[in-house]
Design goal:
With 350 residues, this protein is α+β, with helices and mostly antiparallel strands. It has a six-stranded mixed sheet with strand order 7-8-9-3-10-11, with helices on both faces. Strands 2-1-4-5-6 form a five-stranded antiparallel sheet, covered by helices on one side. A five-stranded antiparallel sheet has the order 14-13-12-15-21, covered by helices on one side. A hairpin with a 4-residue loop joins strand 18 and strand 19. Helix 2 packs across helix 3, helix 2 packs parallel to helix 4 and helix 4 runs parallel beside helix 5. The chain is globular and about 75 Å long. 38% of the residues are buried. The model has no long low-confidence stretch (mean pLDDT 89).
């Protein structure tokens, strides 16, 4: 069972044309530059923008097919949506905002409010049920919006930049809450985001859209290692290292240790920009606290730069100039030393 989008969708002079198959139980992260078609995809799945060509199917049910003019209106689709700016009703309290979707489907007031109260409890807001949106923080409003989307028991959950409007500390908390709720939801989940960290933390696979076309699809680690465009290289072509931090040292599942400058403790994600990784043939005197032995696995060239995939205790992507590449005469299979300063590593709590 899956969501299948094999369609072209037009909005003004822009056209999104792609083929996607998202199986049940998967979180698909959708990334791309502004204007690439990410939100257009969600609007088409939600039924807010009809397809111009092709079809959209959910399991065995056609939601939108141009050839025989079949179209299921938004309110009849088993779909929940969480928007970037939450779109809560200002005149309703949190409880009635969550209950709204059920009431719109004909559920009685008492039953709808009972289900809404249960969901507010699940997202940690039971004590704020009677507060209106203006009385809630940004993170609390997004929790209400998430509960509102899930209370109707949708088959598909669409999340359109749900963390973009939040500050750094709130993003961390809501990302953790999203991770918990998405893990408990066994339907199909599409997450539109501009942040590869969100995709890494929340998505099983990532779809990269540029200029209305699907350019890459796969695990974010695979895409980071083999970007197919400069945009993709800059967006997700970075080193994302997951591990456990204790006393400013991250231990990874492979046994590597990475010195970091961080007051975090516990599960975390470290971000190492490829440009921050120094490559040398011999171990050189350096102030870097992290030096790893490795072997060059692959070399790719982009716009006067070379991206090196380094296999070792801590697999890394490094980016150097073509001049440096030629000076070291590096080839796949060569042994190298990769070093990175602890101060060049950014950490995030998971």
């Amino acid at each position: 069972m899956s969501l299948v989008v094999s369609a072209a969708i037009r909005r003004g002079g822009f056209e999104l044309d792609l083929d996607l198959d998202v199986p049940a139980g998967e979180v698909l992260g959708v990334l791309g530059p502004n204007g690439s078609g990410k939100s257009t995809l969600l609007r088409a799945v939600a039924g807010l923008t009809p397809a111009h060509r092709g079809e959209i199917r959910l399991d065995d049910r056609v939601l939108d097919r141009v050839d025989d003019r079949r179209f299921v209106p938004p309110e009849q689709r088993p779909i929940g949506v969480v928007f970037q700016d939450d779109l809560l009703f200002d005149h309703l309290d949190a409880l009635d905002n969550v209950a709204f979707g059920l009431r719109a489907r004909g559920i009685g007031r008492r039953a709808a409010r009972g289900a809404a109260r249960s969901w507010l409890d699940r997202v940690g807001l039971a004590e704020l049920a009677n507060r209106r949106p203006v009385e809630l923080s940004g993170g609390q409003r997004q929790r209400v919006a998430l509960a509102r989307a899930l209370v109707v028991e949708p088959r598909v959950l669409l999340l359109d930049e749900p963390l973009a409007a939040l500050d750094v500390a709130t993003r961390r908390d809501i990302r953790r809450e999203l991770r918990r709720q998405l893990a408990a939801f066994d339907g199909i989940r599409l997450l539109v985001t501009h942040d590869p960290l969100d995709a890494y933390a929340l998505a099983d696979r990532v779809a990269i859209i540029e200029e209305g076309r699907l350019v890459q699809l796969g695990a974010i680690e695979e895409i980071a290692a083999h970007p197919r465009s400069r945009y993709v290289a800059e967006l997700v072509g970075t080193n994302l290292v997951e591990g456990t931090i204790r006393d400013s040292v991250m231990s990874t599942p492979t046994g590597a240790e990475l010195a970091v400058v961080s007051d975090l403790s516990g599960s975390a994600l470290a971000v190492v920009r490829p440009q921050s990784v120094t490559i040398s043939r011999q171990e050189a005197a350096s102030s870097a606290r992290n030096v790893f032995h490795g072997v060059v696995h692959e070399i790719e060239r982009y716009d006067g730069r070379a991206r090196l995939s380094i296999d070792g205790p801590l697999p890394l992507i490094a980016e150097i100039t073509l001049g440096a590449l030629d000076a070291m005469a590096l080839r796949p299979g060569d042994a190298v030393h990769a070093s990175v300063k602890a101060t060049d590593i950014t950490t995030f709590e998971l």
